Amino acid sequence: MKMQEIDDKARRHAVRILCVGFASFILQFALFFHLTFWEFSWSIMEPLAYFLAGLQLIFCYGYFLRTASNPTLQDFKRRLFLARRRKLCAKLSFDMDRYLNLQKHSRDPPEGGCGSQDQDRKHYDL
């Protein structure tokens, strides 16, 4: 029950971060639209849009180099979820060994826990 609560909090946190990212892309698009058609012309906005797109590409490539995985939203959401779940388990002093031991002896298959990333990857797929 406590693990379910931790998972729910971690999932809400990951979704919240993704929604903020989505809102920032919408605001960026709206700002560029406004600046292109009302304030400046395309000849001024074209280099800005080019360099911002290049910067976003550099960030995605840096994410790929750091994580060795594709920069997809599903992978990013899973990584956010697992990181937040690990922090919540540590903060709430959740006994993961006991939880995994209880799961091992129950009829339900293991869902994963606050252990290592490899263990989380094997048992938990969002």
From TrEMBL:
Chain spans, region Disordered: 103-126
UniProt-listed GO biological process terms: calcium import into the mitochondrion; mitochondrial calcium ion homeostasis
Keyword annotations: Calcium, Calcium channel, Calcium transport, Ion channel, Ion transport, Membrane, Mitochondrion, Mitochondrion inner membrane, Transmembrane, Transmembrane helix, Transport
Domain of life: Eukaryota
Residue ranges annotated for the Calcium uniporter protein C-terminal domain, each copy included: 3-101
Gene Ontology terms: cellular component: uniplex complex
Subcellular location(s) of the protein: Mitochondrion inner membrane
Membrane-crossing segments per the record: 14-35, 47-65
Identification of the protein by name: Calcium uniporter protein C-terminal domain-containing protein
Taxonomic placement: Eukaryota, Viridiplantae, Streptophyta, Embryophyta, Tracheophyta
